[in-house]
Amino acid sequence: MFEQEKLSYDYKALEPHVDARTMEIHYTKHHAGYTSKLNEAIAGTDYEGKTIEEILAVAGETPAAIHNNAGGFYNHNLFWAVMSPDGGSEPAGTLADRINEDFGSFEDFKEQFSGSAKLRFGSGWAWLIKKEDGSLAVTSTPNQDNPLMDVVDEDERGVPILCLDVWEHAYYLNYQNRRPDYVEAFWSVVNWEEVSRLYENS
Ligand code: MN
């Protein structure tokens, strides 16, 4: 049985950038829904007992109920972890060096990531991934797909270390149609310590 990661902050902790009502509905309804539907969909199949990474790696050969809910389960766990009420500021250490090397500067990286989040048509996610050769790249995926899935182009695959949910359910109550404002506010809550940890451990 897959279980949602516990939030390390309360629903209102990310205000004013992410409002409490959105956080609560997002966690207790949307993410909880993906999680329970994933558990239902894998029950009694060969996928029961596999890790989420193993399921994502073969998402393309699974029924839509597993493909979509496995993505929804994994993506939100990462999303909660890369935000913090103590977030914002800038990355440090080896991650900062690698960002400078691969994007030119932190500002250039932010612009690329924000652009990717703003331009994603319809529902989806923006990602910072660590590729097999250790380099970083910004990508985006539709729906609940992610860069660990076999359905994603090979050159856009890697280990996600930062993500941003751009489904309307992630921002509509507070920002309505103003996705760009939500994307800009995200930078105030990014938990760079966790992103660094993920970079170094992947
Ligand atoms: Mn979501």
* Alpha plus pi helix count: 8
Topology order in helix (H) and strand (E) letters: HHHHHEEEHHH
* N- and C-termini, Cα separation: 24 Å
- Gyration radius, in Å: 16 Å
SSE inventory with pairings:
Layout lengths: L19 H23 L9 H6 L6 H18 L11 H11 L2 H14 L4 E7 L5 E7 L16 E7 L6 H4 L3 H8 L5 H10 L1
Antiparallel strand pairs: 1-2, 1-3
Helix pairs in contact: 1-3, 4-5
Bound molecules: manganese (II) ion.
Overview of the structural elements:
- It is a single chain.
- With 202 residues, the protein is mainly α.
- It has two domains: 20-81, Helix Hairpins (Orthogonal Bundle), CATH 1.10.287.990; 93-201, Iron/manganese superoxide dismutase, C-terminal domain (minor pseudopilin epsh fold), CATH 3.55.40.
- Helix content is 47%, strand content 10%.
- The protein is built from eight helices and three strands.
- It has helices spanning 20-42, 52-57, 64-81, 93-103, 106-119, 172-175, 179-186, 192-201, and strands at 124-130, 136-142, 159-165.
- A three-stranded antiparallel sheet has the order 2-1-3, with helices on both faces.
- A hairpin with a 5-residue loop joins strand 1 and strand 2.
- The radius of gyration is 16 Å and the shape is globular.
- The two termini are 24 Å apart.
- The mean pLDDT is 97.
- Manganese (II) ion (MN) binds next to helix 1.
